[in-house]
Amino acid sequence: MSSILRRIHVSKRSLKSVATSDLTATLVVRLLTVLAGILSGVFTARLLGPEGRGEFFYWSTLSALAVQFGNFGFHASNTYFLAKGIKLSTLLANSFLIAVLGTAATGMVILVYLNFDSIPLSMRALPATLTIALIPGGLLYIFGSNLLVANGNVRDFNLFEIVSRYLSVAAVLVAPWFWRSSTAVLAALAIATLIVTFPLFKRLRIIDSSGPLRCDIAVLKAGMGYGIRAYLLAALGFLVLRVNSIILENFVGAADFGIWSVAAQIIEPLTMIPAT
């Protein structure tokens, strides 16, 4: 009996040390993420100028809103159903389907919104297309990273967070260095997001390679019911942070909007530290 109790005590102590190390690593990653957000704002402002920076922030905000509203709460329900015993491969397949549906739905909303803008859509076709191109990678990254945490792979999650953030920083640094336009930065970001998504889902398939990826409609329906509450809270909270960007862009000049957007981008990642 005493040997069993000793083993239990050692197991608890090792689990506590693992949890502490994961927490410490996550805090460090969050701090580095904040730094990445600041660097991104500074680089785009320097290289694109106020007007170019404002244009980039406007389109990237539209994309971020689309990703937040296009996930339909499945980033939360995937965690729940993984804990309930649903296969990781099933949730991965469902995530791919939701990413496609979410991109189609939010992309259509963006096009309709832009069609009612004062500037003709034909004059903004390229940035609008690149904005929509950012959505699938963003959705897949949200689903994949949440599944890593839900499965207990916190170290993998932290690694992908660092790679994703600083690959984006590299994209916003390199693209305007050669092409001084917001559309070049949007294109580079879309490519960077997809580059991270492939190894992320490959890692998830290595963790669970139990058969082919097959969607489960019953799990999808149940996930919609479970995730809608978390979806509304997250989406509306994010809307409060970002909708002012969409409104303000219509009332101030491009240069003033660009200057304001730098401050807005620096403030937002600072909220990650207390939230961690």
Kindly, what is the distance between the CA atoms of the first and last residues, rounded to a whole number of angstroms? 40 Å
pLDDT averaged over residues? 79
What share of residues is helical? Answer: over 70%
Radius of gyration: 20 Å
Specify the number of helices.
9
Q: Could you list the spans in which at least 5 consecutive residues all have pLDDT below 50?
A: 4-15
User: In percent, how much strand structure appears in the residues?
Assistant: under 5%
Count the E strands.
Answer: 0
Q: Name the helix and strand elements from N-terminus to C-terminus, one letter apiece.
A: HHHHHHHHH
Structural class: mainly alpha
Shape: globular
Largest sheet: none
Report on this model:
Helix 1 (2-70) packs parallel to helix 5 (154-178) and helix 4 (125-150) packs parallel to helix 6. Helices cover 86% and strands 0% of the residues. It has 276 residues and is mainly alpha-helical. It has helices at residues 2-70, 74-83, 88-115, 125-150, 154-178, 182-207, 217-249, 254-270, 272-275. It is built from nine helices and no strands. The longest helix is centred in the first third of the chain and has 69 residues, at 2-70. The chain starts with a helix and ends with a helix.
Brief rundown of the structure:
With 276 residues, this protein is mostly helical. The chain has helices spanning 2-70, 74-83, 88-115, 125-150, 154-178, 182-207, 217-249, 254-270, 272-275.
